[in-house]
Amino acid sequence: MGLSVIPFIIAQFPKMLKTHHGQRLAVLLALITSFLLVLSYCLYQVFQPWIQRRKLAYAKHKHVISGILRHAQMQALGRLLNDDGTPNEDVIRKLFRKIDIDDSGNLSHSELHALIVGINFEELDFDKMDAVDKVMNDFDTSRNDVLEEDEFVQGMKKWLNEAKRTVPASGAFSNKFINEFHERTRQEHAQLIDKSDEAVESVENPGWCIAKAVGFLLLGAAIAAAFADPLVDAVHNFSNATHIPSFFISFIALPLATNSSEAVSAIIFASRKKQRTCSLTFSEVYGGVTMNNTLCLGVFLALIYFRNLTWDFSSEVLIILVVCVIMALFTSFRTTFPLWTCLIAYMLYPLSLVIVYILDYVFGWS
């Protein structure tokens, strides 16, 4: 959603430089960028299930590794991390020798399988052999299908450093530190499991679904292009007939009408008060904004370019940039949203109307 404001910046660039040269080229570049972003967004939606499966597989692997670290702590072999946070190689080598049942100097698939089976993963149901293969692939840098002691030490040190990045520690790295890392990985896996039900659900005949979606996009773009000019005339005529400034019709009445379907859909999802449906609500909002900033803008820019019109929307562009950037930054650093956060989003709408009105009618920007 944040990236979708790039075409606005490109189109507005000559205005920011206060020059009339290159305005038509800027509109063309913004037009091309808009449709490239539409294509990128559509491709992301197509590949999102694959991305979600990769995330889930990595979270599961991370949780298995954290279980191995916790198991080493519980076996009273010693602390895996020294007071300064550096990995304790002596303890890691003790763990290796304990897992190496046949004293061969390396770990086989069967020995890793025995280790993972012996670890209590009550909250996680997974294929043990698949977990063994992933651990072997992660640690076995020589690719000889066995884990040598140095490879095991280096692999464990890598994941201990990952634990230090995941769990902020202050002071000494106690046994509780590893337990907290294990709990964090369990929570990450649980959250992805909750999201994966709708994200990785298999679709019958995906080729037909993609073709239908592309068809609807093209049809929507064609309708928008065909009715854009008559809509402007209708707004202008309605404004003259009712003596209501076109500003209020364009920025208050029309947005409520054109975005009503997304609003109703989002409210229905949110009213179920479940984590998955709340996630769908945010996806609905982000998707609506992204498509408005890319596909709808692309159609508008195409009309401006091919009919050789003038791009003069400085105040509107400024507000779109401010609102999208604020919400993009605000939501990029949070995964949960308390009730008070909605007040910020709500206040941006009337604030935007006031600023656009002042810039247009007081300072004469457009």
From TrEMBL:
It comes from Panicum virgatum (Blackwell switchgrass). GO terms for cellular component: plasma membrane; vacuolar membrane. Belongs to the Ca(2+):cation antiporter (CaCA) (TC 2.A.19) family. The chain crosses the membrane at residues 25-47, 209-228, 248-270, 282-307, 313-330, 337-359. PROSITE patterns: EF_HAND_1, EF_HAND_2. One of its GO terms (molecular function) is calcium:proton antiporter activity. It is a multi-pass membrane protein. May function as a sodium/calcium exchanger (NCX) and participate in the maintenance of calcium homeostasis. May play a role abiotic stress responses. Its main location: membrane. Residues 87-122, 127-162 form the EF-hand domain. GO terms for biological process: intracellular calcium ion homeostasis; sodium ion transport. The keyword Transferase does not apply. Keywords: Antiport, Calcium, Calcium transport, Cell membrane, Ion transport, Membrane, Metal-binding, Repeat, Sodium, Sodium transport, Stress response, Transmembrane, Transmembrane helix, Transport. This is EF-hand domain-containing protein. It is found in: Cell membrane. InterPro entries: CaH_exchang, EF-hand-dom_pair, EF_Hand_1_Ca_BS, EF_hand_dom, NaCa_Exmemb, NCX_ion-bd_dom_sf. CDD domains: EFh.
